[in-house]
What does this fold into?
Amino acid sequence: MATLIERVAAGDRRALAVLISRLEREDPEALEILSQLHRRTGRAMVVGITGAPGTGKSTLTAALGALLRKGAAGRDPQRVGILAVDPTSPFTGGAILGDRIRMRDLAGDEGVFIRSMASRGALGGLSRATDSAVRALDAAGFDAILVETVGVGQAETDISRQAQTVVVVVTPGLGDDIQALKAGILEIADILVINKADLPGADSAAGSLRAMLDLGGGAENDWRPPILKTVGTTGEGVERLAQEVFRHREHLLRSGEGERRERERAQADLERRLSGRLLARWRAAAGRDVAEMARKVVARECSPEEAVEKLLG
Amino acid sequence: MATLIERVAAGDRRALAVLISRLEREDPEALEILSQLHRRTGRAMVVGITGAPGTGKSTLTAALGALLRKGAAGRDPQRVGILAVDPTSPFTGGAILGDRIRMRDLAGDEGVFIRSMASRGALGGLSRATDSAVRALDAAGFDAILVETVGVGQAETDISRQAQTVVVVVTPGLGDDIQALKAGILEIADILVINKADLPGADSAAGSLRAMLDLGGGAENDWRPPILKTVGTTGEGVERLAQEVFRHREHLLRSGEGERRERERAQADLERRLSGRLLARWRAAAGRDVAEMARKVVARECSPEEAVEKLLG
It folds into this structure.
């Protein structure tokens, strides 16, 4: 265990892979290792990259990762971690990991760590495993951690919790599709990217996004999400994206917003952990049969509200 | 309060709208009303309709709703409730509810209830409000409740919890986009729909989906998701969709799968409610300062794991 801690702290990619696999299984020793590594965390820049399927997020993530690794926006070369988050699925069993293929040219480099997260655990397991993997990469000295999440909808709540900077990717097809704008995704964006900007309609998509931002007001803090155009496949616009990512990081530091968000995140995390522990403790102590009570709810013998009162009372 | 219960139970749409608004705010009296209405629930057919933005879900939902209302697949006309679930967003403030416009021709009918859910509450608030609205519609005697959710990704966990039958909508554009298939969305589908099937590529999309289903094995129960082609704007294929929805409902009843799912759902719901109550109770009794502990975690004075032990110990 001590050896694994040391090796991860030294940035050893194989040790990191082992640790993350064990964290995915919620192995207790791995969780203890993570706890001991906590003091080494807090240095990485964590960037979430999200958007609907088909927006080319994976390609863009790989392009951004490669650029940061080389040294972009006048910065030193970064050590780059990429986590591709796939929802629990039998289809992600390894056969069709397109992302990995696209990211192949990054894979030989010791300063790059790529992982496709594919937990098969309980509800919430994937989200916990991703949190843990981010912390492990941070402790291992990765400077930039890119978390690519498939999805719009409620996935946004996860990514905006996990990342410091959220990049929302859309495509020019957006035009008449009011749903993309309704999907709650704009409000979590720190940076908006129109990828595949070589397709027709990029300018009108940019116009729509600008109008939406104007509508939303959004002067709660001093940051107005920039709207960028990129072509992930050619790398066009990706340097500018890197610049904006760094600029947002500086904004977070300077304004105190970063610290505020991190505290909120830590508090929500503690509350989740506490709830889980309190439920387990109550279950052991009270010896009540939740399954039997669920049966009564389904049989309409009592309502869920009444069931909870009975269980706690 | 007694009047509101009676009016909702009698299927009064205005009373229902009032109740749902109060449930969105988590008004305690409204929650008590819902508890009292619980015995009247359990009769409705709850269908989730989900997919990425741009797949035409709203139009398809409206078309299916209209057909069920008229009487489809040899059934009597149904009373139809439609819940359009938008994630928490300042952009859904009422100005740009495209869905409502599309559904206008349904709106004059007493046997139809349409609601765009747009909670601004805490994390999880939208999901709770949707659960509550489904229960209220069920108690009010709506036969078919269609829950349209924007999103792929983690939203699927919610919709597969809330609905008995999940319809996943894709478009022919899918072809080369491996991400749509990776999005965990196939495994929650009871029925797969290729909407906009008049566009090129519908047959090849169907072929891809079939191949994915073959890969997944999926013989855990006797149901293999049918793959349908629809054109929501013209209504083509929607009668067939209605038939498959009813056929899946019968499968759930006959196989016992429906009851099994409902019990699991009820148990998970009770556990969520218990966790929340236990946390509130602990907070009041222990008087510990979670925010202060979160500060220590952020300052790296202790890890979250250590913080939880300290708080509980």
